[in-house]
Amino acid sequence: MKIQGKLKRLLIAITVLFLSFATGVAGFMLIEDYQFFDALYMCVITTSTIGYQEVRPLSDVGRAFNIFYILTNLAIFAFVISTLTSYLFEGELQRIFKRYQIRKIIKKMKNHIIVCGYGRNGFNVCQELDRLKIPYVLIEKVESHLQNFRVDKYKQAILGDAIHEETLLEANIKEAKALIIALPNDANNVFITLTARELNPNIFIVCRSSEPSSEKKIYRAGANKVIMPEALGGIHMAQLVVKPYIVEFVDLISGLDEMKLKLDEVRLTEIKPEIKHLSIKDLQNDIDCEVNIIAFKDKEKGFILNPRSDTQLSEDKVLIILGTNEAIGRFKQKYLQ
C-alpha cells in the first residue's frame, strides 16, 4: 500500500472531527445564539463527555440538537480515538515515516537491480547480490517474509505487489539496469515482464518460469532470459554424477569454493583512455595484473575463448576475466575510469 493510502484513514478521521466541531458550533450559534467561543466550549465538553454545566440553559430545540449531537459524536469520537491510537501507539506513524525515508533513498538509486519475490529463489538471488555487494531493491508482498531482511546502503525493500505498476515505479524501475522476477506464478511473471518492458525499454529482464509451456510466452512479453530452476537443478544433479570434476571447476570459478575465485566482465568502454592502445599481452605481462583474461566478446564474432595475446583492446569488446575478488578489484581500479 502506498504512503498516501496509509495516511488516508488519518486524514479522514481529522476531517470528520473538524466537520463535527463545525456542525456543533454552527448549531449552537444559530439555535441558542451563542458566541463563537461559547459554542466551541459546548462542543468540546459534549464531545469529550466531560459533562460540565452548559454556558446557559438550553431551549427545547437546543436540547434536541444536543441529544442528536451527542449520539452522533459517540461514533465519531470512537473512530478518531482508535485511529489516533493506531498511529501513535501501535507504530503506524513510524512505519509510514520509515517507508517515506526508503522511498527517498530508492529515488536516488541508479543502475541498480530490482528483485521481485523473496521465496526460495528470490532469497538465493539476494544472497548472491549481497555477496557481490551489488545495489538492489527487493519487492515482496508478504510482510512476514521480510522479517529477517535487513536493509543497508546496498539494498532496500518494498512491501508491495510487483504486478502493480506503481510498485515498480516506487522501486525506481526507470533508472534500474536489470529486473529479476523470481515469483512462482507464471501468469504474474508475464504481466510483470510486460509492464516492466513498457516502463523501461532498455532494462535487462531475467524471469523465472515454472512450466516449460510458459517459456515462449515470457520471452514474447519482453524477457531477455528465462530460467527454469527445477530443470537446472535436475541437470546439475546429473552432472554431479556424470562429470563431477567439471561441476567442481564451475563451483571454483563461481566463487563458491574456498579459493574464492570468480569470473567477472570488463567493458572496454570504461577503460582509461591512456591504455586503449594496449593489447591483451600488455595487460597479462603487467606484474600488478593478477587476473587471467580467458575470453572476450566481440560485437560481430561473439565470444572468443583463449584470445590471442596480440589482440588489441577496443571499445566494442568485453573482457571475461578470472581471479580473486581482491585481484579483480585491483585490476578495475588500475585500468578502469
UniProtKB/TrEMBL annotation:
Residues 250-337 form the RCK C-terminal domain. GO terms for cellular component: plasma membrane. Residues 110-228 form the RCK N-terminal domain. Keywords: Membrane, Transmembrane, Transmembrane helix. GO terms for biological process: potassium ion transport. It is a multi-pass membrane protein. Its main location: membrane. One of its GO terms (molecular function) is monoatomic cation transmembrane transporter activity. It is found in: Cell membrane. InterPro entries: K_chnl_dom, NAD(P)-bd_dom_sf, RCK_C, RCK_C_sf, RCK_N, Trk_Ktr_HKT_K-transport. It comes from the Bacteria. This is TrkA-N domain. It comes from Raineya orbicola. The lineage of its organism: Bacteria, Pseudomonadati, Bacteroidota, Cytophagia, Cytophagales.
